[in-house]
Design brief:
6 helices, 7 strands, single chain, alpha/beta
Length: 150
């Protein structure tokens, strides 16, 4: 489980890449991008298949991200996540959020030992302020049952 200090470190970053942008409208990466954009983050969509998303030019890979990108939200299939993690580290990105379902246990174990600020097992939309009612409610219940990050 992530801790609140690491989560705050991640959400304090202002230039965040979002990997997992898709042509399929209902994918989480798309929803997260739109919500984080509304919250004032400067976002950089990463997609090999799209030229732009929500009016923002897509980067085809992590190596083409500008230097000011200090964090990445990854919402991809686990096999793709492994590749993206290696690329992010090569680029010097040390704030990494692996959205639920984007990494297998082996990958999570590997990244936790890497010394980076890696968030796993949590939904970024619950912590990026201001959180919507649904996400605040989810946080309330997590606190109630003792599953909220300390």
């Amino acid at each position: 489980m992530a801790n609140i200090s690491n989560i705050k470190q991640f959400t304090s970053q202002k230039h965040i890449a979002v990997a997992g942008i898709s042509r399929t409208p209902h994918k989480f990466g798309n929803a997260a991008f739109k919500e984080l954009m509304k919250k004032g983050y400067t976002l950089y969509p990463v997609s090999q298949h799209l030229e732009e998303f929500e009016g923002v030019k897509c980067c085809s890979d992590i190596s083409s991200l500008p230097a000011e990108v200090t964090a990445i939200l990854i919402s991809t299939k686990p096999d793709q996540t492994k590749i993206l993690l290696d690329e992010a580290r090569s680029k010097g990105i040390r704030n990494i959020w692996l959205q639920q379902g984007s990494a297998d246990k082996e990958t999570i174990s590997k990244v936790k030992d890497g010394g980076d600020n890696v968030i796993t097992g949590e939904c970024i939309l619950m912590f990026a302020e201001p959180a919507h009612f649904m996400h605040r409610t989810h946080a309330f219940f997590k606190k109630l049952v003792g599953n909220y990050p300390a």
